[in-house]
């Protein structure tokens, strides 16, 4: 899994941080999303998919790795 | 638009549009005060995208399916700018409210994003999580006072309302001593019964109050949001007052009503209440489920199409209004099987109770922390909590833009 974020789209709602705090954080000065781990381990994949699904601004994209 | 033109328009939109538009706001059924209005649920079952008629005889689209609601609210081709001709309003008062000093909630990007980003740091998850001890202290103080020498009280007046009120005042730098003043005006702005004149007056009173506050922070700065907006020097006092008013009004009515209505819902679902009491660790998920189940922004979020957009198989034409019915979408069986029932163990995170898209509630991390602490503390400290009047006598807020209860007499 590869995670991509678009900081220009982010509206700072913070729902990604609640779903997967190991992968997402927010910038201190303006609350915009920060990516902590672009290739999170399998145990976090479900949480990352959830974070992408509930992101209100569609700022998170998940690319599936070709290796299974 | 004349009636003939409307009929012609409806014919153009195809048979799916249906011959009888739903009148909104639609009334809830008596006896089922937690459920969406039957007319809206029926519309969802029969045709998830249909036409609605509004108070002034105009019509708009009614969007009830979870996926369609997310598509509309997430699509920048739908504008939140209430000054555009054809924007759907629920009442004449709501139209008046939107016309004066709009805050960023009624603006589109890039201006919306510029203004909203001045506040995102204040509501980010880490910042709000750090407020837990303070919110807990406020909750405990309120319950100490409410229970001292007594065994009955109005939960709204003594706990559910003052808790978020104290917190938002603290954050903004607004003196809590003025709470009766701004709670009164805030209620007028959100009432479906307010006249245009009443809305005008409440707007002006709040705007003047917050302009005065901004001026006083210029002389005596503190670390509240209003003071920091003044210090940035990018906004004039009127713009700061609009932003402050949005936060003050939104911070009050929403969490207060979610707290009281959630408590009542749990009392009416004793199996769910027992489960939550037995497993307090369920509280975070339970709050998401209560947000989904109750969806207190219950009349629909308005938008207007900037260009022709196809959603759910229907083409919404440029200039047509849309109401996204969040409470029906949050019970969409495709996303929440058995969604008509409360289940504190459900994974309800995909709910749209905070809206969706770039306008999704800025204060949601704060609302979550407040609700988790308020409910956990209430259930832990008052094991014998019960409703103190017949359920039929509970004054539900059918007349308000934010649903809930006007009062909740409880005993313990």
Describe this protein's structure.
- The complex is a heterodimer of chains A (68) and B (412).
- Chain A is an alpha+beta fold.
- Chain A has a single domain, classed as 2-Layer Sandwich (Alpha-Beta Plaits).
- In chain A, strands 1-4 form a two-stranded antiparallel ribbon. A two-stranded antiparallel sheet of chain A has the order 2-3.
- In chain A, strand 2 and strand 3 form a beta hairpin.
- With 412 residues, chain B is of the alpha+beta class.
- In chain B, 48% of the residues lie in helices and 9% in strands.
- A six-stranded mixed β-sheet of chain B has the order 1-2-3-9-6-4, sandwiched between helices. In chain B, strands 5-11-10 form a three-stranded antiparallel β-sheet. A two-stranded antiparallel sheet of chain B has the order 7-8.
- In chain B, helix 13 packs parallel to helix 17.
- The longest helix of chain B has 32 residues.
- Chain B is globular and about 60 Å long.
- The interface between A and B is medium-sized, with 22 and 27 residues.
- Chain A: Its cofactor is [3Fe-4S] cluster.
- Chain A: One of its GO terms (molecular function) is 3 iron, 4 sulfur cluster binding.
Task: Summarize it.
Chain A is an alpha+beta fold. Chain A has helices at 15-19, 45-54; strands at 2-5, 24-26, 33-35, 60-63. In chain B, 48% of the residues lie in helices and 9% in strands.
